[in-house]
Amino acid sequence: MTQPQPFPRLVSARDWMREFFLGVSEPHLLADRARHVVCDGGGELCFRHADGETLWRAGRFECPTVAELRRRLAEQQHVAVDALPITVADGVDIGRLQASLTTEDRALVQVASNFNALEVPSRGVPPDYGGLVTGYATDSTQGPAASFGVPAASLLRAHFPFFDGAAPASSWGQTAERQDAAAAVAALSGRIRVGWHVDAEVVFDRGPSRGTLALLPEGERPLVDQVLSAAVNLNDPLNAPRSDARETTRRLVAAALSAAYEGAYLAAALRGNRLLLLTLVGGGVFGNDEAAILDILPHYRRGARAVGAVLVA
Q1: Given strand 10-12, what is the order of strands in its sheet?
Q2: Is 168:191 a contact under the CB 8 Å cutoff?
Q3: For strand 107-113 and strand 275-278, is the pairing parallel, antiparallel, or unpaired?
Q4: Which site among 93, 170, 212, 232 is 20 to 30 Å from 258 CA-CA?
Q5: Taxonomically, which superkingdom (predicted)?
Q6: Residue 241: predicted pLDDT
Q7: 92 membership: H or E segment, kind and range
Q8: 47 - beta bridge partners?
Q9: Which ranges in the chain belong to alpha helices (H)?
Q10: Is CATH 3.40.50.1110 correct for 58-312?
């Protein structure tokens, strides 16, 4: 990040984008995207504050299939090692934990997401409604909790995943009609895509109250990797599984969960991450059986056997 203007350490959790991060609200950003994004010499996007000087790195984002990650890992040379155990950390706020990391931890954080790598509040809400990324800061569920602290990365995934300087700015973001990776759900886990974001800068921690965020000091803002994993929402009232298709649903649920954890392990192995923070993808309101999740979780370590994995429940 370039020389930032001084800001207060505590920032409003409801108005952080305008008050601090970009100097404009999310609807204003959507209306004038080109003004607030630049591409550096290495092809990485940076978000530009309205002051014209402050820049925020967005990291790099892609949506490979699990099969593609397998292929990439197979092309690398790996030394056989004993698998490290998976440990469990119960009752942990992933937003706070992520803010406590350092770049040297080389951590990969699994984010419980949707198949478009976003955390929309409900099926009927489009990604570009104007408050998606802003609202992450006041949503305590796992996906938003892991996303609010990396605002530039979250903005890239939502509103700039199709960035092309030669195309109209209105075509750069996800909409109700155009979503990243959403069409890739199939009955074979190798065809399912995961969102993979590397070098996401952690800017915010939780503040002392629900209405505030704590700004991490410059020089103490870690870079983390994130893998955005999705599961079948068995409790979706608009897409409830049919009673006559239980076996098909079971296979799809298993394929999605397998892809979620295999994709996370493969990404960690490819990046050489030392720490992998996992979550119960599909648990809670999505209605996936927790025992089934825990059964699948350790089976896909493959080349990531040397990665220390922690299940943050």
Answers
A1: 10-12, 212-215, 204-206
A2: no
A3: parallel
A4: 93
A5: Eukaryota
A6: 61
A7: none
A8: 37, 56
A9: 16, 26-31, 66-74, 94-99, 132-135, 142-147, 151-159, 246-271, 290-296
A10: no
